Amino acid sequence: MLEWASPLWFLALPAVLLPLAGEWRPWAIRFSALTLVEARWTARRSLAALPALLRAASIGLVVVALARPQLVERETVRESEGVDIMLAIDTSGSMRTQDMESGGRAYSRLEAAKAVMRQFVEGRPEDRVGVVAFGAEAFVQAPLTLDHAVLDEFISAMDIGMAGQSTAVGDAIAVSAKHMKELPAPSKIVVLVTDGQSTAGQVDPIPAAQAAAALGVKVYTIGVGAAGGRGLLGGLLGGTGAQIDEATLRRVAALTGAQYWRAADANALAQVYATIDELERSPAKVKEYVHRDELYLRYVLWAVGLMVVELLLSVGPLRRLP
Fold this sequence. Notes:
- The protein has helices spanning 17-21, 34-37, 43-46, 50-66, 109-122, 148-156, 169-180, 205-214, 232-235, 246-255, 266-279, 296-315; strands at residues 2-4, 69-80, 84-90, 100-102, 105-107, 128-134, 138-145, 188-194, 217-224, 260-263, 284-294.
- The protein is an alpha/beta fold.
- A 6-stranded mixed β-sheet has the order 7-6-3-8-9-10, sandwiched between helices.
- 34% of the residues are buried.
């Protein structure tokens, strides 16, 4: 990109007009006799102003050189250890309940969770993010990665029942924490979204939370769904009657130094993720390297060249006598 180190020199550009002013003098007597006015056109007469034009151009080039044009290349290097984030999402049957309203439209709990997850991931370019799907069992749907485009495809592929119809909250916490166990990061967090009670799995939520805390992993918990777990219109849109075990979710979050939220609609869920985004910012450092290539010398050489040509013409074929 072209930049100017001393652009104030462009204020001197009107000096370019000085050599031309000497050529345009309407009050001056240009011919010594009237017979010369009728003289036919000659090449010398048509080129008489060329030295003045060359002198004006050379002055302009000197001004440009004084403004110091530079070809600048900037390279931004981000130095960030980032945060490791596992998004643990309940994909049990009750997550198809369409009670997550936004803009007058009803979404299923899983649809709302997936939409908000995409926005959350998009806003964390420096962090490794992974996904754990859980139902009757829990497994890593997408490992921790900085390739968020690929991660978006994994999130899109999540569907109801892919991990079973019941809910294994403890297994989800254990699988998430285990996946981050050996990876160095200044902060490790799990964002767990569920709409029911832990009714399956090999590990209870509380012991799993204690183990996660011992590994330095925070578990933020979110309970999603309208009060009572019923769908919109009195349950006609997929209500299940499932109850969120808020006491356990609060306990899990407290044991790991995190927080619990209840999200009754899609907007509330988005706000919860925004809050987590603010609480867990990446300690990023940014350095900018700048390379400057000075271009003024070429303008100086061009100006000198035009001055030499102007001088040769002035003392040669276009010489003027007093």
